[in-house]
Prior knowledge:
Largest sheet: 6 strands, mixed
Order of helices and strands: EEEHEEHEHHHEHEHEEHH
Bound molecules: adenosine-5'-triphosphate
Strand content: 15-25%
Mean pLDDT: 93
Amino acid sequence: MLRFSDVGVTFESGRRVLTGLSAELSTRELTFVAGASGAGKSVLCRLAVGLLKPESGQVELLGERVDAMPERALRTLRQRAPYLVQGPALLDWRTLRENVALAAPGLSPEAVHEALAQVGLEAAADRLPTELGPGAKKRAAIARALALRPEYLLLDEPTTGLDRRAAAQVEEVLASVKARGLGALVVSHDYRLLRTLADRVLVVGGGRCAFLGTPEAFLASSEPELRALTAPFLESASDG
Ligand SMILES: Nc1ncnc2c1ncn2[C@@H]1O[C@H](COP(=O)(O)OP(=O)(O)OP(=O)(O)O)[C@@H](O)[C@H]1O
């Protein structure tokens, strides 16, 4: 389970981002997080793995009270549930094999190879990230998380900035992650991906959980707050 109970977050600037968000998510499912820009989607990921402490409320992940955990225990939790941030995640001067091996001390060469194979990059193991396109880099970053044999994944905008072909390759990786029964929290504006892969959609709005339900219910909703998010996608989808 990933559980947020009445979570409040205010930044020093005085910006109140979350004002009592509650949601209970299965860590065996792919939950997509949607919401307007600045709504607090990345904040939710950071709360889930203890990179940010809530000012009020509780956060629980994989049976652990994240908001009350000391830093050392959080480091272990982040190996069980790695968080892939949106930006660059690899060392450009290390090969993919080395980058993946750096996920944790003592990873076996077999575990590294297996993780690269899972994302279709075994043939590129000895290449540098700079020699690869953005889609392959993103897949290598996912391989680094998979090498930890995680129990859950958190992915921030995994297809943002990728062209269609690269996004489709990342989608394939996420589909295989899902087929293996691994759950994830995926922050994404990519509703095509959401429609094909999501088990559940969580919408952050007004500092709270504005919606939690199936992707079908999310895309079909006539709630004005949800329509504002889905309408541009539905229009472009009907344009062909
Ligand atoms: N460390 C911080 N200090 C102050 N404000 C912050 C901090 N981190 C995030 N914020 C603010 O909190 C709000 C939510 O940020 P967050 O990154 O979660 O948005 P988001 O929903 O992921 O948006 P986007 O889709 O644009 O990435 C934003 O207004 C952001 O400026």
